[in-house]
Design a protein that fits this description.
The protein is elongated. With 174 residues, it is α/β, with parallel strands linked by helices.
């Protein structure tokens, strides 16, 4: 216990009075290090996309939704996959207007306490791989409609979904 008459007006202040301030400062340091790691991770992903020949940002979708809801339609003539992160919100993503370049597309969907609804073009094959789910649902609610890729000589497009869902819901519709 130390008395600081000039600073605190003669009030005795001890370490047990300052522990909430120290806890807040430690929390700010943790948040700062997390945001720094996130920026570096995004920069690495951007560099990988450039190396893979993805020139346009619309070719690779990336959504980070926190405490928010959104409805998006994706337009791309050179679609190559992406990553979706939803926390405490809802994202409706329409992929039916895509023209993919490669047959296999990869999309990571991560949902925590939220909902992600994906509208997939008819005729696309879907490979859902729930990597981890807890108190959650990953559902394919599509009705089968033969698409143009299943009628002609063009191979069907395949969407590979890696789903992680905790206390949320991921739905695939057409």
């Amino acid at each position: 216990e130390a008395a600081c008459p000039g600073v605190f007006g003669g009030v005795t202040v001890g370490i047990r009075d300052w522990w909430p301030v120290l806890l807040i400062i430690m929390g700010l340091f943790i948040l700062g290090s997390i945001s720094g790691k996130r920026k570096r991770r995004k920069e690495l992903k951007r560099n990988r996309r450039v190396e893979a020949g993805i020139r346009n940002e619309s070719d690779y979708i990336e959504y980070d939704m926190m405490f928010n809801s959104s409805e998006q339609i994706v337009f791309s003539d050179n679609f190559r996959g992406g990553e979706i992160n939803v926390g405490f919100g809802e994202l409706k993503l329409d992929l039916r207007r895509l023209n993919p370049v490669v047959v296999d597309q990869y999309l990571d969907v991560n949902v925590m306490f939220g909902t992600a609804i994906l509208y997939v073009p008819p005729g696309w094959q879907l490979d859902m791989r729930p990597s981890s789910t807890a108190f959650a649902g990953v559902q394919d609610k599509r009705t089968f409609i033969p698409g143009p890729s299943e009628v002609g000589d063009v191979p069907p497009y395949k969407l590979n979904l890696k789903c992680t869902c905790l206390f949320g819901n991921i739905e695939i519709r057409n």
